[in-house]
Amino acid sequence: MKHFIDINNFKKKDIDQIITIAKKIKKNPKKYSSFCKDKTLGLIFEKQSLRTRLSFNVGMQKLGGSVLELQSKDIGFDNRREKAEDVLNVLSQYIDCIMIRNNNHKQIENLSKENILPIINGLTDYSHPCQILGDFLTLQENFKNYKNLSIVWIGDYNNVLRSLIHLQNIYNFKLNVVVPNQIFKHYKNEFLRLKNNNLKYFTDPIEGVKKSNCIMTDVWVSMGEKNNKTKYFKNFTVNKKIMSNASNNAIFMHCLPAKRGKEVTSDVLDGKNSVVLKQAKNRMYIQQAILIYVLKK
Ligand code: CP
Ligand code: NVA
């Protein structure tokens, strides 16, 4: 049984395969219009979602499949009425695959080991692999030679960054991670475990952004986080000055939703080098490719 929990569970050839399928669907969507005929995808969101919800829902329908959005509380997925494994066992009698967004990465990791039903990670407190694969597609569309890319992440050490680092560990592109020192200290051991010659850590955004072709950021406080860390992010707002210190024509990326004036200024978010809406659109082709990959026997 195939699951899609984290990018670092995969080999380069698997990721290449998913990206190739996404590119093919984007080029010729009609050809794929019955790839998931008679298949049903369940969606469980324990946190808010616009892009992931819509891209999975519309994406699955465009593949000829159907979608059920299940409320965690209503179906008793919260371990109160019965165990989550028992819920999955029953779900597996009706549906073919489940996407889960929750605040408990360990739960979906453990459930995937039971091999009851293919599970897709639609974001957890730990990672956001679907987002980063979609972003990898966007990067490949923007840069012919994406192997020589130099990316900078400016912001929090969070789920999206973690999936980006997992991708970097496979493809070995240059990645500068610029995180406030107070936050980095907390994740230092994890970072050192994942570090390599092309993965570097900075605390100064202007220094970290030099020679980069792509600047990525995300909210400073993620969904479900209680600690208001915004005080650590002085000078971390991606603005025109930071953009001007990158390479010529560097692109700006953000998974969205964005807090305007916090992690990014509106002129950058809406500017000509911003590809945020393209990222949102590409989420759909990637979700479709992930579904095909996971559901294929
Ligand atoms: N980028 C992303 O996952 O957006 P949503 O939280 O709206 O799904
Ligand atoms: N890091 C953000 C990503 C949202 C798509 C969060 O978890 O809230």
* Shape call: globular
Number of strands: 9
The number of helical segments is 12
Give the helices and strands as they follow along the chain: HEHEHHEHEHEHEHEHEHEHH
Provide the CATH superfamily of the largest domain: Aspartate/ornithine carbamoyltransferase
CATH class of the largest domain: Alpha Beta
Structure write-up:
The chain has 297 residues and is of the alpha/beta class. The protein folds into 2 domains: 7-128 and 281-295, Rossmann fold (3-Layer(aba) Sandwich), CATH 3.40.50.1370; 130-278, Rossmann fold (3-Layer(aba) Sandwich). Helix content is 42%, strand content 14%. It is built from 12 helices and 9 strands. The protein has helices spanning 12-27, 51-62, 72-75, 84-91, 105-113, 129-142, 159-171, 181-194, 205-209, 240-244, 266-269, 276-295; strands at residues 40-45, 66-70, 97-101, 119-121, 150-154, 174-178, 199-202, 214-217, 251-254. The chain has a 5-stranded parallel β-sheet. α8 links the parallel β6 and β7 (199-202). α6 (129-142) crosses α12 (276-295). The chain is globular. The termini are close together. The model has no long low-confidence stretch (mean pLDDT 97). It binds phosphoric acid mono(formamide)ester and norvaline (NVA).
